Amino acid sequence: MILVVAMPVAAGATVWTAKGDGDQPTAVGLVLASTLVSPLTVPLTLAVLCPLLQGDYAGRLAVAAHSAGNAFALTSVVLPCAAGILCRLALPSAH
C-alpha cells in the first residue's frame, strides 16, 4: 500500500476527469508535475512511512527503497514518460 501512496498520480486520473466532465488541462498538469517530482517524493515517502510497518514486509521495503533510491522513480517513471514524449514529437502525425 505504501508503494501505491508513494507513486505519482496515475494517468487514469485523466480518464476519470474526462468522465466527470472535469478540467482536463489541470488533470494532465497534475500528472506531469507529480511524475517530474517523483524521483524526490518516492524515496521521501518511503523513508517516512516505512517505520510504520512491521514484520518482514517492512524490512524488504526499506531495503528496496534504500538500494533503489532516486534511480527507481527515475528509471520506472520519468524516463519512460520522456521517451514517449520524444517519440511523439519525432514521429509524423497521422493527419
Describe the structure in brief.
Helices cover 76% and strands 0% of the residues. It has 6 helices and no strands.
Task: Give a structural overview.
By secondary structure, this protein is mostly helical. Helix content is 76%, strand content 0%. It is built from six helices and no strands. It has helices at 2-6, 12-19, 24-36, 38-49, 56-68, 70-90. Helix 2 runs antiparallel to helix 3 and helix 4 (38-49) packs antiparallel against helix 6 (70-90). The longest helix has 21 residues, at 70-90. The protein starts with a helix and ends in a 5-residue tail after the last helix. The mean pLDDT is 76.
Largest beta-sheet details: none
Backbone structural class: mainly alpha
User: How would the global form be characterised?
Assistant: globular
Distance between the termini: 42 Å
Find the count of extended strands (DSSP E, 2+ residues): 0
Number of helices: 6
Q: Return Rg in Å.
A: 16 Å
- Uncertain stretches: none
Proportion of beta-strand residues: under 5%
SSE order in H/E notation? HHHHHH
Q: Fraction of residues in helices?
A: over 70%
Query: Mean pLDDT, as a whole number?
Result: 76
Set out the fold topology.
Blueprint: H1 2-6, H2 12-19, H3 24-36, H4 38-49, H5 56-68, H6 70-90
